[in-house]
């Protein structure tokens, strides 16, 4: 039984007007921008996690840097040991 014409996968359509070309280009740029934003958010999350791991490791090592081992200052947050 021969394949029906509706079963065929259509190839990419060639834009017929300048407007269609601009719309396709605009959509492509928007897609690239969205993907770039997603990558930036992923990098921010990785950086945040690395900072948390660093603070935990320093805490585990007892690195304080303050004048009194009973009071540690990390950034603006005060933590007592």
Automatic annotation (TrEMBL):
PANTHER family named among the record's database cross-references: SYNAPTOSOMAL ASSOCIATED PROTEIN (PTHR19305), SYNAPTOSOMAL-ASSOCIATED PROTEIN-RELATED (PTHR19305:SF14)
Organism listed in the record: Drosophila mojavensis
Single Gene Ontology MF annotation: SNAP receptor activity
Protein's name in the database: Uncharacterized protein, isoform D
GO biological process: synaptic vesicle fusion to presynaptic active zone membrane; synaptic vesicle priming
GO cellular component: plasma membrane; presynapse; SNARE complex
């Amino acid at each position: 039984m021969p394949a029906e014409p509706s079963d065929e996968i259509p190839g990419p359509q060639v834009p017929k007007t300048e407007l269609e070309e601009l719309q396709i280009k605009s959509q492509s740029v928007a897609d690239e921008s969205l993907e770039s934003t997603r990558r930036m958010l992923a990098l921010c999350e990785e950086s945040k996690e690395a900072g948390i791991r660093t603070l935990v490791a320093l805490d585990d090592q007892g690195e304080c840097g303050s004048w009194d081992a009973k009071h540690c200052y990390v950034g603006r947050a005060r933590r007592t040991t």
